[in-house]
């Protein structure tokens, strides 16, 4: 009997201790706050920490200017560094659509455009990038291209609206109503343009040298198999255009800073772009 009483008393003590421990470990009731306890509470973002956002129209991928879905490339880097106070959201489109992207409210700014005429409400930057174009042929084709007129009887592969951008002689030769227009092929995607050149026996490709070199090497073609004819103006300059003049002004100021600091030249070296002159030279007029 004494043993039984001792066992019973011991069991009661253990149960009491366990009950007390459970009460201590249970969470204390919370005061009503008007929020469901199971709802995750996310702190409000600091609105002042976010940069103003701009939708930026930019070309389809054209190495080394725009690459990897407009996440890198010299045009991407120049724009990002020239406008450090803004978050740039790049939207890619063919060159012919870049020209009208801002006017048609599809972007706040567009990179790689030319100013053919004044458009009310559109603000153009200074030149921000320049291309050095050449007429390139295969050595095996044995074509003699020494001047623009020599292109007349050959298939010419080039980019959209190129006839407007390579000087008056080229424009006259390949204008829409010209007899030579039948030999003139505009290709929206310059990777495809280069592919068509390498697939052709004797076509002439008119293109920026850096673009041609980058795409050809990436597709394992040998640059030693081609000739470059420098028959066009020394450089073709491109601008950006904007919906708002103050952002255009900030962009121009950013370009000047990139030039004066030497960062612009560093970007050219980063992307292996060799130019006879750049937008930082005094001869590159706005």
Automatic annotation (TrEMBL):
InterPro entries assigned to the protein according to its UniProt record, in alphabetical order: Solute-binding_3/MltF_N
Matching Gene3D superfamilies: Periplasmic binding protein-like II
Top-level taxon of the source organism: Bacteria
Keyword match Signal: yes
Solute-binding protein family 3/N-terminal domain mapped to chain residues: 53-275
Pfam families to which the protein is assigned, alphabetical: SBP_bac_3 (PF00497)
Signal peptide: 1-26
Sorted UniProt keywords: Signal
The protein's name: Amino acid ABC transporter
